Prior knowledge:
The structure is a homodimer.
Chain A: H1 10-15, E1 25-29, E2 42-43, E3 53-54, E4 58-61, E5 75-82, E6 98-102, E7 114-117, E8 121-125, E9 128-131, E10 141-142, E11 153-155, H2 163-171, E12 176-180, E13 184-190, E14 194-195, E15 206-207, H3 210-220, E16 224-231, H4 235-248, E17 251-255, H5 263-272, E18 276-281, E19 285-286, E20 292-296, E21 299-304, H6 308-326, E22 336-342, E23 346-347, E24 353-361, E25 370-373, H7 382-386, E26 389-393, E27 399-400, E28 405-410
Parallel strand pairs in A: 5-6, 13-16, 13-17, 14-15, 17-21, 19-24, 22-25
Antiparallel strand pairs in A: 1-12, 2-11, 3-10, 4-6, 4-7, 5-9, 8-9, 18-20, 20-21, 22-28, 23-27, 24-25, 24-26, 26-28
Helix pairs in contact in A: 3-6, 4-5
Amino acid sequence: MKGxxxxxxxxxxxxxxKQFSPIQTETIPLKSALGxxxxxxxxxxxxxxPFSRSTMDGFAVRxxxxxxxxxxxxxxxxxxxxxxxGAPGTxxxxxxxxxxRIWTGGxxxxxxxxxxxVEYSRLLDETTVEVFKPVAPGENVIQxxxxxxxxxxxxxxxxxxxxxxxGVLAGLGITELEVYRQAVVTILSTGDELxxxxxxxxxxxxxxxxxxxxxxxxTETGAIARQGGIIADDLPLMLNTCRxxxxxxxxxxxxxxxxxxxxxxxxxxxxxxxxxxxxxHGVAIRPGKPTILARIHNKAVFGLPGHVSSAMVVxxxxxxxxxxxxxxxxEQNSLLAIEAVTDQQIPSAIGREEYxxxxxxxxxQDKRPVATPIYGKSGILSPLVKADGLLAISRDCxxxxxxxxxxxxxxxxxx
Amino acid sequence: MKGxxxxxxxxxxxxxxKQFSPIQTETIPLKSALGxxxxxxxxxxxxxxPFSRSTMDGFAVRxxxxxxxxxxxxxxxxxxxxxxxGAPGTxxxxxxxxxxRIWTGGxxxxxxxxxxxVEYSRLLDETTVEVFKPVAPGENVIQxxxxxxxxxxxxxxxxxxxxxxxGVLAGLGITELEVYRQAVVTILSTGDELxxxxxxxxxxxxxxxxxxxxxxxxTETGAIARQGGIIADDLPLMLNTCRxxxxxxxxxxxxxxxxxxxxxxxxxxxxxxxxxxxxxHGVAIRPGKPTILARIHNKAVFGLPGHVSSAMVVxxxxxxxxxxxxxxxxEQNSLLAIEAVTDQQIPSAIGREEYxxxxxxxxxQDKRPVATPIYGKSGILSPLVKADGLLAISRDCxxxxxxxxxxxxxxxxxx
Lengths: 415, 415
């Protein structure tokens, strides 16, 4: 029977991504680097801290001068100065029995090896302080180079930069760095029935939902979304628009043209695109069966299901991992998988992986949230808004029991 | 002993946030609304879908014409036309025994109540089709208004907009909407020892790490970070800079000035700021004890610990929830809490809540990740880079056993 799909498993689909490599890199300022992905490990150019620093407010001492002291037998030290913040502490040298006031972050004087917290000291007069708790050498001090040494790998490449990572780079004076550029993804909606969201649909027409949703999904992934607009079901027009989109982007998402009736259309377009190689045409998952993937050199063209809820599942399962791979991320785990328990039985058909939308209730007594399936026909939008994630049921499983622990793929904005 | 803090519990600290209200709203285009927070529930202005649509490619039929048919006894129907996509399907009326070709998303003809999938049909000639599986009325059809009805609440207010939410709004023709404006947060680093990251520090000087880290944390929260720069330890200068920062922002983060030695400085500034009300001065958590919070009308001024690792903990525990509250979010859960198991004993001191940085290994046999504590002096930066989240130990707990299930607050970029 002509018209059926050649289904491959989701595992085999993901293996196809090995045919793609990360895209080019660019150099950007540190200030814009949140969420970006360094192209290679980052090496410390110098030591941190640059000098031995106090981690407390108090008195810089030679530790042995405090040995044996206590509440009843305080050590008496001569105050010979104060290390002002930002001043060179090593300009002062402590002789036995001497101390210097110091603040958190201040540079230790020469010969000082530790700091007594101000809480364990008592001033007798301007130049004398009693210390009533001994310190060990190195106590309340970070040694020069203790944090990082020159040549040390500070951050691995191929992971996303987080706020704390940027902080460490700032501390090392690394104010620009090489990262993968953001992948550009062009989104095309196909269908004679579609009008842009700001138009009033005529009879038989409907507003384009997929462009807005897919663009936001691309943005959420850290890539750049280009809305290519709506293309009528017209082969030469579609071919021409696709050719341009491929030239201008790293990935093209065609949505709406992969149902049984229209996929020949998408296929014809892909066949006629120069150098296009069809990698997959149908996946054994539900929803998301009519997914198409083609490769043009290192560029990807996806044919996505027309229903936005199915397109979204395919996006999270396949488009996002491939986009992360193109963007240079080493781990392409698409969504965070968390453990939940089900509140009811969830039946499933043998022979294909099923992805059930679920709502999560975090207020349960259990440490794990409770997952409730959100059912609805695949063309219906309103259940989408209620869902927090996807519960995966494997192809050899007939269903999930009530109260069974399950793994839920969490939608990024849903926590 | 002068100089000790008046500690309050983290629970009491969070209760102070009731004194703050969400900030103003603004109207923005749908295209820029990802992650933004609607100021009120969004109501459907019209019905969706606007007409009864097919969810399959196939033949629109009167269901009763297929009743009783089967592989051996197909129903024979007369094809009277094809509903082109985007064309008014209701222009055609089906009489008994008649059918129309239809595509996914097409408008049903008048008198049609269901759709036979193309897979269950066989063309005899141009105008005759055999149907060998009966359909029930409504099968493979979404009724007009079945998804949403005019006046129905589509999205609650006060939650972040996700890609799927934007899609539903696009479908309803809502192309602009009222959201809370993004809170503006000014970040000031204080300390004579600090130089900007692109400067070479002199003796006793160190690069400012906190401005970069805090700005990225603010950005990650969805607010707008303004780097106010480094202020020397000079009271009139600090007071003047703070006054300006308060005037220009919804929140001010002062970092570096809250250790025992410098906090009087921050306190003096807060006392002299017009209308400033000191709400808290010290929290019973570790790290993060020297945290200060003041309110000026509906604006917040935080004094944060000087060590960036401590400042980051305080940011996630307190600054971020307050920022989310100002931004109009109903749930101000700062970080996602997931269940993990520990790989070793973790001791803790009675009397204060402890937040231990942990690295998570997701590749364990267990469904839950394994948490390994990352120790390091609080002034050391390199452990920060390894940590994926924070393990909370309550104030009455002496420690966590090896293999014990624990709750880990996940850093946003770490999954």
